[in-house]
Design goal:
- The protein is built from 6 helices and 9 strands, in the order βαβαβαβαβαββαββ.
- The chain is α/β, with parallel strands linked by helices and 210 residues long.
- The protein starts with 9 loop residues before the first strand and ends with a strand.
- Bound molecules: 5-O-phosphono-beta-D-ribofuranosylamine.
Length: 210
């Protein structure tokens, strides 16, 4: 079977809008050697005020800002796509990127865009998924890493991590525990992609047949 070392490293373009804790978790795993075969080629933010930009600098990673506010979606996305291509990005990693992508962008990087969502999809797509799950009264919550298609929080699932919802939880404590799982899940999903041992069969992302 192929191992990551037989391929060139998977170059990530990480798109952020805010805090950047998933970016930090991925970067730390790369540095620690626990996410082999992966490197961050560029971090792109769509807001100049994203805390994740300071994090990017501290981590010594290249970062760029393309302010999206007030710009037509396709035009903004074309600038982002050009930047990703300049950095030879293989995989676009949405890490708290709070802007819908244009169909043109999604087609240009078909099956090469991944996202993390703080619920067990297909339950609770959209904003505030942790609060939606808590208010619904679910007993199991979690997060999902998935490929991005043209529908919101909908593409094929790469992996999920589940946790119990405790009677003592409030929405905030549940969100915090889901976030911890996210930080594990994203790197696990990227390792699967970098390992090139999985393939898409319809919507199912499964080990290749030997
Ligand atoms: C995470 O909860 C992620 O699931 C959602 O946006 C949040 C981003 O957090 N898509 P961070 O910026 O990575 O800290």
């Amino acid at each position: 079977m192929d191992s990551p070392s037989q391929h060139h490293p998977l170059k990530l373009g990480v798109l952020i809008s805010g805090r950047g804790s998933n970016l930090i978790a991925i970067a730390n795993n790369i540095r620690a050697g626990t996410l082999p075969g992966v490197e961050i080629a560029i971090v792109i933010s769509n807001t100049a005020s994203a805390c994740g930009l300071a994090v990017t600098r501290e981590l010594g990673l290249p970062g760029e800002v393309f302010v999206s506010k007030g710009r037509p979606r396709a035009e903004h996305d074309a600038d982002v796509a050009a930047c990703l291509r300049r950095h030879n990005v293989d995989l676009v990693v949405l890490a708290g990127y709070m802007r819908l992508l244009s169909p043109e962008f999604i087609q240009a990087f078909s099956n090469r865009i991944v996202n993390i969502h703080p619920s067990l999809l297909p339950a609770f797509p959209g904003l505030d998924a942790q609060h939606q799950a808590f208010d619904y009264g679910v007993k199991v919550a979690g997060c999902t890493v998935h490929f991005v298609d043209e529908h919101l929080d909908h593409g094929p699932i790469i992996l999920q991590r589940a946790i119990p919802v405790l009677d003592t939880d409030d929405a905030e404590s549940l969100s915090a525990r889901i976030l911890k799982e996210e930080h594990i899940a994203y790197s696990e999903a990227l390792a699967r992609i970098a390992g090139r041992q999985y393939e898409l069969r319809g919507r199912r992302y499964v080990l290749r047949k030997a």
